[in-house]
Design a protein that fits this description.
alpha/beta, 42% helix, globular, binds 4'-deoxy-4'-aminopyridoxal-5'-phosphate
Length: 427
C-alpha cells in the first residue's frame, strides 16, 4: 500500500466548502453569506481605491530592489507603522521598546507563530489555552498543531474553551466567562481574545468588561493573546477598535497581538500581517558607563521569533506589506484609507439595519435586535443547523452551519429575499 494510506481524514474547511457549494449552484438568485470577505452592493470584490493608488505609486518608482529578500524580521518601516496603528503610538513614545514585532503570513501566520512561540518557550509551560466558544474555527487547528513534536500528534498545551456567547441575549456571556476563567485557569495559561468584531458572533465585551478581563489576567497571571483581524471594520474607527489592546498595554501586561491586514486593506490573498509580542516595561539599570541599559527582553523575544520564522519560511512575502507601508506613511493616502474603511463599515452597518427592518416588517417570529447590537462583518443570526440547511435548499442562501452570516454578502437587491428565507424557515 501507499506510504500515504494512513493519513487522517481531514474534514473540508467550512467557509471554503460553503463557498464552493455556492459557486456550483446555478440558481440565478443565489446569495452567498458564507465566506468572510467584503463585497460591494453589486456583490463584487472591491480592491480599495487607496490600494490601487499605492500600487501605482510603487510601480512608478521602478525600484530595482523591489523583489529582493526582506530581512527575516520583515519590512521594518512597515512593522513600525503596523505597531503604531495597533497601539496608537506617537513619534516621541518610548513605549515602542516594549514590543517585539515581526512580519507574518497574514493574521493566520501571526496566530500560528505566536502559538508556536508560547508553546515552546514559556516557562513554566502554559498548561491550557482558553479559546472562546464559539470562535474562528482555525484557532482550534492552529493550537492543535502548535508545539507538537513529530513523534506525537498530542498538542503540548491543552485546548479548553470558555463560554463566550449567550444565545439568550445574542451578546458576550461575561458572567460565565469570568466564572470559568477565575475558577479554572492556571498560572501562565493563554487566553485567546478577539480584539474587536468577534468572529463568528459579532458580540464584543463592553469597555468595563474589558477592564475586568485585564484585571483577571493580571491577578491570575494569564497570558492574553489578541487576535486583531478587523481593526477599523467594527466601528469604522481604527482607534476605537484597538481600545482593548491599548488598555492591556497600559495595564502593564505581557501579551501577544496577531494583526491582519486582510480585511481592513482588502488584501486577502496578499497575506499581510504582523505578530507583536508585548513585554514588561524595561527596568532601566545604570551601567558602569552611566548609560541606561535595556535588559534585552524585546531583543531576545525578537531573536526567538526570527529563529522560528527562519526555520519555517525564512521571511514573510513583501508585496502586500509594501502597499500597507506606502499608504500608512503618506498623509494623503492614509486619509483616503480612512475614507475607504468608513465606506465599507458603513455599508455593513446599513445592511444590518436593512436585514433587521425587513424581518420586523415581515413580523418574523423572534427577537432580532441582536443583529443591530452585534458588530463587524459577522452576525450569529440565530438559525438552527436544520434551518440553515433548509434556507440553502429552499432559498439558495448560503451560510455556515452555526448560522453565522457575513453581512457584507447582503445588498439592496438580495436583503429582502434573505429576510423572506429566514422568515420561511423559522415559522
Ligand atoms: N482571525 C480571525 C478571527 C479571522 O476572522 C481571520 C480571517 N477570517 C483571521 C484571523 C485571519 O485571516 P488572514 O490570515 O487572512 O489574515
Amino acid at each position: 500500500s501507499s506510504l500515504f494510506s494512513n493519513l487522517p481524514t481531514i474534514p473540508p474547511d467550512e467557509p471554503f466548502s460553503v463557498n464552493a457549494a455556492y459557486q456550483e449552484d446555478t440558481h440565478p438568485k443565489k446569495v452567498n453569506l458564507g465566506i468572510g470577505v467584503y463585497r460591494t452592493s453589486e456583490g463584487n470584490p472591491w480592491p480599495l481605491r487607496v490600494v490601487e493608488d499605492a500600487e501605482k505609486t510603487i510601480y512608478e518608482m521602478k525600484d530595482h530592489g523591489r523583489h529582493e529578500y526582506l530581512s527575516i524580521q520583515g519590512d521594518q518601516v512597515f512593522l513600525r507603522l503596523a505597531a503604531d496603528l495597533v497601539f496608537n503610538f506617537d513619534s516621541t513614545t518610548k513605549d515602542r521598546e516594549r514590543i517585539a514585532s515581526i512580519q507574518t503570513v497574514s493574521g493566520t501566520g501571526a496566530n500560528r507563530l505566536g502559538a508556536e512561540f508560547l508553546s515552546r518557550y514559556i516557562h513554566p509551560r502554559p498548561q491550557n489555552v482558553w479559546i472562546p466558544d464559539p470562535t474562528w474555527a482555525n484557532h482550534h487547528t492552529i493550537w492543535q498543531l502548535a508545539g507538537t513534536s513529530s513523534s506525537s500528534s498530542t498538542p503540548s498545551i491543552k485546548i479548553k474553551t470558555y463560554p463566550y456567547y449567550d444565545s439568550n441575549t445574542g451578546g458576550f456571556n461575561y458572567n460565565q466567562t469570568m466564572k470559568k476563567l477565575s475558577s479554572e485557569a492556571k498560572e501562565n495559561d493563554i487566553i485567546i481574545l478577539h480584539a474587536c468584531a468577534h468572529n463568528p458572533t459579532g458580540a464584543d465585551p463592553s469597555i468595563e468588561q474589558w477592564e475586568n478581563i485585564a484585571q483577571l489576567c493580571k491577578e491570575r497571571h494569564l497570558i492574553p493573546f489578541f487576535d486583531l483581524a478587523y481593526q477599523g471594520f467594527a466601528s469604522g474607527d481604527v482607534d476605537k477598535d484597538g481600545w482593548a489592546i491599548r488598555h492591556f498595554f497600559q495595564a502593564g501586561l505581557e501579551f501577544c497581538v496577531a494583526q491582519s491586514f486582510s480585511k481592513n486593506f482588502g488584501l486577502y490573498g496578499q497575506r499581510v500581517g504582523a505578530l507583536h509580542v508585548v513585554t514588561k516595561a524595561p527596568s532601566a539599570t545604570i551601567t558602569s558607563t552611566g548609560h541606561d541599559k535595556d535588559p534585552g527582553t524585546t531583543e531576545d523575544v525578537l531573536a526567538t521569533l526570527c529563529h522560528l520564522v527562519r526555520g519555517e519560511y525564512s521571511m514573510a512575502p513583501r508585496g502586500g506589506a509594501e502597499i500597507v507601508r506606502t499608504v500608512l506613511s503618506n498623509d494623503g493616502l492614509r486619509q483616503k484609507w480612512v475614507e475607504d474603511l468608513r465606506m465599507m463599515s458603513s455599508r455593513i452597518l446599513g445592511m444590518r439595519r436593512a436585514l433587521f427592518e425587513e424581518l420586523v416588517r415581515l413580523g418574523t417570529p423572534g427577537d432580532w435586535t441582536h443583529i443591530l447590537r452585534q458588530i463587524g462583518m459577522f452576525t450569529y443570526v440565530g438559525l438552527s443547523e436544520n434551518q440553515v440547511a433548509a434556507i440553502r435548499e429552499r432559498h439558495h442562501v448560503y451560510m455556515l452551519r452555526s448560522g453565522r452570516i457575513s453581512i457584507s454578502g447582503l445588498n439592496e437587491s438580495n436583503v429582502r429575499r434573505v429576510a423572506m428565507g429566514i422568515d420561511d424557515v423559522v415559522r
